[in-house]
Amino acid sequence: MKQKSFVSLKTKILTLIIGLILGIVLLLTTIYIYNEIQDERDKVEKLSLQVVKTLSFLPPIQHAFENSPEDAKIILQQMRTQVGADALRITSKEGKSYSYPTKGSTISNVYDPINYKALTFGGYYLKEGKGVNGPSYIAKAPIVQENEDSEKIIGVVTAEFSKKSIYKEIWNKLHVVLFSSLVVVLLGIWGGILLTKSIRKDTLGLEPAEISSLYRERQAVIQSIKEGIVSIDREGYITTFNQSAKELLGLEEANSGQLLEHIYPQIGMKDVLMTGESKSNEECLINDKLLIVNVTPIMRKEKIIGGVASFRDKTELKKLVDKLSEVKKYSEDLRAQTHEFANKLHLLLGLLQLGYYDEAIAFIEEEYGFQKSQNDALFQKIVDHKVQGMLLGKIGKASEKKIHFTIDENSSLHQIPEHIETSELTVIIGNLIDNAFEAVRSMDREKKVSFFITDLGQDIIIEVEDNGEGISDEQISIIFQSAFSTKGKDRGYGLTNVKRAVAHLHGEIEVQSEKGKRTIFTVYLPKEIKGA
């Protein structure tokens, strides 16, 4: 397919500038020529009338037809040279005339209406007509001879100024105008080239057609990205966002042009614009969704001119990870339970082989009674199978670790609300119990952990208590921070996950601890979310 050609920005700008300058020059030149013609015309008209008036009062002109005409011819020659007239002529009433330039005198047989008017009425007249050098301005004045008691018109003075001489004068002046216009055009071209270079520098050397093409491609790429993308200007106002950002953040077209910091201050875009430091893979809870946020400033010449924020939904990924974690924990708990039962069977087998039948029976009855009380609380009052399975595994794990783990007989969980995912509930319960096991693991005295859950009332209440060393007041304020642990490296993520899950379910968590005695974690999860 043949690529569509386009006119470059440089060509467009130069064409526009040259066309504009030429248009202005043409307009100004036309106005100039018109004004010059009018000025020259007025000047010639006044000059021609002044010439014929002056000549008509000179004695040699008045007596030219009575005496020798040589004096009159000399005056006509001098006057013509001084004023630049094309022709000067005196004509008698009888039609005899002398002119300069001429080869002598002639008798005019041609009837001239203007001559007639000047001879008859004695006025001064000006007309346009054909002269000795073509179209001319022709002025006439009567020659009046004064006697002692009367005045008599004896002839007419005529002066001709050719229009060609006027146009020639204007053309001489027009050379300067045309030269100036050429200089202006050249300056305009030079300025256009500089302007084009400046614009291309701002557009990174791209033509407008290339910019529009790249813009469409960028829009297509941005809209096709599964991550939410939001761009802002240097003031923090939203300029662009894609469809994924609409879905993840709940943005609408009306949000364009608004401050992102006002809509979602938890993103921290203001800090990025102020410091110029990027934020990578930070977790942020927005619209009940756990998002991974990356914020990068846009720099130009070491100045911040905007920023881009990307968002990934961690909620779905977290659900899969939590489910996988549940399966892994179930597997570990079942292994621990299998190991514990194997130990008990070995103990029972040893008692039977040694003939301690009464002790064997007592052991069986003790185990049966304990398991029955636990199973009654577990299977009759807690209806969710996943929670049952998870607690059953914890019982086995506690037995393996020599921890006395009990489920409060007053526990009850009849129905889990729709907005609470079972996976989130098991994350909360499992991590709290594991945390309690860790708290009592290294104790020399009897290790006790108890679990209680109830859905009576407006909340689901979960309570896990241990008789460990307890937590200091200073540690209580930071135990939910990521990777905080008193057990060493790569530990301490359990309570962070608990805190996140509780916050997602709009719940609360409380910690009560007595140093050296016990610690109680209590979680309150509302059955109904207000406004939902």
Q: In words, what does this structure look like?
A:
The protein has 532 residues and is α+β, with helices and mostly antiparallel strands. Helix content is 50%, strand content 23%. The chain is built from 15 helices and 16 strands.
Number of strands: 16
Please, how many domains? Answer: 3
Q: What is the CATH homologous superfamily assignment of the largest domain? A: Histidine kinase-like ATPase, C-terminal domain
Percent in helix: 40-55%
The proportion of residues in beta strands is 15-25%
- How many H/I helices? 15
Structural category: alpha+beta
CA gyration radius, whole angstroms: 56 Å
The biggest beta sheet, please? 6 strands, antiparallel
| Multimerization status | single chain
**CATH topology type of the largest domain:** Heat Shock Protein 90
User: What low-confidence regions span 5 or more consecutive residues with pLDDT below 50?
Assistant: 103-110, 488-492
Distance between the termini: 56 Å
The whole-number mean of residue pLDDT values reads 79
Morphology call: rod-shaped
CATH architecture of the largest domain: 2-Layer Sandwich
What is the element layout, followed by pairings?
Layout: H1 9-56, H2 59-62, H3 70-83, E1 87-92, E2 96-100, E3 106-107, H4 113-121, E4 125-131, E5 134-146, E6 151-162, H5 163-202, H6 208-224, E7 228-233, E8 238-241, H7 243-249, H8 260-263, H9 269-275, E9 279-286, E10 289-300, E11 303-313, H10 314-353, H11 357-380, H12 385-400, E12 404-407, H13 422-440, E13 448-454, E14 459-466, H14 473-476, H15 494-504, E15 508-514, E16 518-526
Parallel strand pairs: 12-13
Antiparallel strand pairs: 1-2, 1-6, 2-3, 4-5, 5-6, 7-8, 7-11, 9-10, 10-11, 13-14, 14-16, 15-16
